[in-house]
Design a protein that fits this description.
The chain is an alpha+beta fold and 600 residues long. It has 14 helices and 30 strands. Helix 4 links the parallel strand 4 and strand 5. Helix 12 runs antiparallel to helix 14.
C-alpha cells in the first residue's frame, strides 16, 4: 500500500494521432512495468482495430512504480484516453478520475481542435496540466511554432512546456519527474467510500469488470456496495489494479485506481460516471459530473442474408456488453426484413461498430441512411422525438420540425479559410467568428445542423484543407428547419429502406441521386417501371427502368401498316394487364448499391 503523498493519478490527452499510446508505451518500458521481451507497440490498445487504425477507442488504466531521483518510489496511475470527438464523454470521465493531465501536441502538426476541447475539459475539472511537445525528432517538427501556439491559444507559458520524443525516449525521464513535482497527490475528504466508475468491460467468465477511482474511503473483497444513481446493491468478489494485466489485491484505498468485480452480470446495470459506496454506510451525495450518455446518430443495421438475423442479434448483444454507448432495438423493414435500429455517438463510432461486427463476428451487413433525433411539434401541441423516417407523422398534422445543431471549432492553415467557409455555407451552416491562432493558422467557430456533418463533412474538410484541417464539435440546441420526409416509390409502392428525413432544399438532389442509382441497379422488367422520389403526395424526381421487349413485328413482313399496328396494340394491352398484376423484384444488390454509399 502506497502512502497518499506518493500517489499520482494522471491521464494523457491529445488530438487523434499525436502519440498518446506511444508515450504510454514509453512510460511502461521506462518504469519496467512491462518487460522488453513481451513488449509490442500500442500495448494498452487491446483491440486489433485500435492497433490497425492507430486510434484508442476504450480508456485503458495502468499502474506503474517509478523510482524517482529523490530516492522515493512513487505509484503512478495512468489512464490512456481516446482522442476522437465521438468519445469525449469517456475522456471527461477519465479526467474526473485524475488530479492532472499531460497535454500532448504533435511538433509537426501543432495545436488542433481536439487539443483545445480536451484542454477546456481538463480546466473545467480543475486539473493540473503538463504541456508537452511530442515527436521533436521528426524532420518536419516546428517547435517554435508550437510554443507560440501554446502561449497564444492555450495561454500556457513557453517555459513550462516540455519537449519529448515518445518514439526514441528523449525527455521521458524529465516528464516523469515533472509528474511528481507538478501534479498534486490525492486528498481524500472523508472515510466514507466514494468511488467513481469511469469505464467497464464484460468478461465472459467473471461478469462485469468495473474500472474505478477510489476518491474517499476504501473497498475490499466481501464488501456490500451500492451504485448511487441506479440504487443497486451487490457484493464485491474481487478488487485489483492493472499492470497492465489484472492483478488482485486485498483492498483499494483512497486515491488509487483499479478494478472491482461484483456479482453483477449485466453491463447496462452499471453506468459510466456513477458512484460506488457502501450499502450499510452510504455517502450522502454522488460524485459530480454524472450524466446519462445518449446516442446522436441512428441507423438501421440489417443482415444481407435474412437467415443471419439470429446470429446478428446474438453478436449485437455481445458487442453491447463492452460498449455501453451503443444502443440497439429490434425493427423490421418490408424491404430488408428483420434488423436493428442502432444508436451511435457519432460517425466514427458507427464505423467502428460496423467494422467490429463484420470482422469479429463475420457478419455481412447493410446500414440504412444515418439519421439524427428531430423534434416534431404537432398542431395539437404535443412534441415527438423522431429518429426513424418511418415514424414521421402525416405532414398535415405537423406544425413545425426542429433539428439538432452543433457548434464546431475548426483549426486550419489560413490559406484554406475561404474553402472552409464555402464548405460551412454549403452545409447550411453560419460562421460565428474567426480568430488568428498564430501567423499561419486560423480558428473558425461555426454553427451547423448535426445532420449535415454526420454524412461526409469530415472527409470534405480534410479534402479542402489538404489534410491540415481539424474539427471538434459539441451539441448546441435545436433550431426550426424546413425538414421533410423523402420517400422513394418503385412502381407506385413506397420502399421503406430508402426513406430518409432531409432538408427541403436538398430533397430534390437526393431523390434524383437515389432514383438514378436504382435505375441502374434494378434489372430490366417485362414492363416499364417508374422509380419516383416523393414528398407527401408530390413527385419530385423520376427515372424509368427500361422494359424487356419482344420484337412482335419479326414475323410480320410486308403488308399494310394496320397489320403491324394491330400486333403492337395487342402487345401494349398485354403489358398493361401484366403491369396491373406485376410486382417488381428489387435485388439485394440494389439496396447495397444505394445504402452503402455515403455520398450525398
Amino acid at each position: 500500500m502506497a502512502e497518499l503523498d506518493k500517489i499520482r493519478n494522471f491521464c494523457i490527452v491529445a488530438h487523434v494521432d499525436h502519440g498518446k499510446s506511444t508515450l504510454a508505451d514509453r512510460f511502461l518500458l521506462h518504469t519496467k512495468t512491462i518487460e522488453e521481451r513481451v513488449f509490442r507497440d500500442q500495448v494498452l490498445d487491446a483491440m486489433d482495430l485500435e492497433q490497425e487504425r492507430g486510434i484508442t477507442i476504450k480508456s485503458h488504466p495502468v499502474r506503474m512504480q517509478y523510482d524517482a531521483d529523490d530516492g522515493q518510489t512513487y505509484q503512478f496511475n495512468l489512464i490512456d484516453t481516446p482522442g476522437h470527438v465521438d468519445f469525449s464523454y469517456e475522456v471527461s470521465r477519465s479526467l474526473a478520475a485524475c488530479e492532472g493531465a499531460i497535454l500532448l501536441v504533435d511538433a509537426a502538426q501543432g495545436v488542433q481542435a481536439q487539443t483545445m476541447a480536451n484542454v477546456n475539459l481538463a480546466i473545467n475539472q480543475g486539473l493540473e496540466i503538463i504541456p508537452v511537445i511530442n515527436k521533436v525528432d521528426l524532420p518536419a517538427a516546428n517547435v517554435p511554432l508550437c510554443l507560440e501556439q501554446f502561449e497564444e491559444i492555450l495561454a500556457i507559458p513557453a517555459e513550462e512546456v516540455l519537449k519529448v520524443s515518445a518514439k526514441t525516449g528523449d525527455g521521458v525521464k524529465e516528464l516523469l519527474e515533472a509528474v511528481i513535482h507538478r501534479i498534486p497527490a490525492p486528498k481524500p475528504q472523508s472515510e466514507v467510500l466514494q468511488a467513481l466508475v469511469f469505464d467497464s468491460i464484460y468478461d465472459v467468465y467473471r461478469g462485469v469488470v468495473t474500472y474505478v477511482r477510489v476518491v474517499n474511503g476504501s473497498i475490499k473483497a466481501g464488501d456490500q456496495i451500492r451504485l448511487f444513481n441506479t440504487e443497486l446493491d451487490t457484493d464485491v468478489k474481487e478488487v485489483g489494479f492493472f499492470s497492465p494485466t489484472m492483478k488482485p489485491v486485498e483492498q483499494l484505498n483512497a486515491g488509487e485506481v483499479g478494478y472491482v468485480i461484483t456479482a453483477i452480470k449485466t453491463p447496462s446495470d452499471i453506468d459510466v460516471g456513477d458512484t460506488i459506496t457502501h450499502s450499510q454506510n452510504p455517502c450522502q451525495e454522488a460524485l459530480p459530473g454524472f450524466q446519462k450518455i445518449s446516442p446522436m446518430v441512428f441507423s438501421g443495421v440489417y443482415p444481407i442474408d435474412t437467415a443471419d438475423y439470429e446470429a446478428l442479434k446474438a453478436n449485437i448483444a455481445k458487442l453491447r456488453l463492452n460498449d455501453s454507448a451503443f444502443v440497439a432495438q429490434p425493427e423490421s423493414s418490408i424491404a430488408l426484413g428483420a434488423g436493428f435500429r442502432c444508436g451511435f455517438l457519432g460517425l466514427l463510432h458507427m464505423d467502428i461498430v460496423q467494422e467490429r461486427l463484420s470482422r469479429e463476428y463475420n457478419m455481412d451487413l447493410i446500414l440504412t441512411y444515418p439519421s439524427v433525433i428531430y423534434h416534431v411539434y404537432m398542431k395539437n401541441g404535443t412534441m415527438k422525438e423522431i429518429d426513424n423516417p418511418l415514424y414521421m407523422p402525416d405532414p398535415s398534422t405537423i406544425d413545425h420540425i426542429e433539428e439538432p445543431m452543433i457548434k464546431a471549432q475548426i483549426i486550419s492553415p489560413s490559406t484554406y479559410m475561404g474553402n472552409i467557409m464555402n464548405l460551412v455555407l454549403e452545409k447550411r451552416g453560419i460562421c460565428l467568428k474567426t480568430e488568428n491562432v498564430d501567423k499561419q493558422h486560423v480558428l473558425i467557430t461555426a454553427r451547423m445542423p448535426l445532420h449535415e456533418i454526420v454524412i461526409d463533412f469530415y472527409d470534405k474538410l480534410k479534402t479542402c484543407t489538404r489534410g491540415y484541417g481539424s474539427m471538434d464539435y459539441e451539441p448546441d440546441g435545436y433550431e426550426t428547419a424546413p425538414t421533410v420526409k423523402l420517400e422513394i416509390l418503385v412502381n407506385g409502392e413506397p420502399v421503406d429502406a430508402f426513406a430518409s428525413i432531409c432538408h427541403a432544399d436538398r430533397a430534390v438532389a437526393r431523390a434524383r441521386m437515389i432514383c438514378e442509382r436504382l435505375k441502374d441497379a434494378i434489372p430490366p422488367q417485362m414492363f416499364k417501371v417508374a422509380i419516383q422520389g416523393a414528398i407527401g403526395g408530390r413527385i419530385i424526381a423520376r427515372e424509368d427502368v427500361r422494359q424487356l421487349r419482344k420484337n412482335v413485328l419479326a414475323k410480320c413482313y410486308g403488308g399494310d401498316i394496320s397489320r403491324k399496328r394491330k400486333l403492337l396494340d395487342k402487345q401494349r394491352e398485354g403489358k398493361k394487364r401484366m403491369k396491373e398484376v406485376g410486382n417488381v423484384h428489387i435485388p439485394q444488390e440494389a439496396f447495397v448499391a444505394v445504402l452503402r454509399s455515403n455520398e450525398e
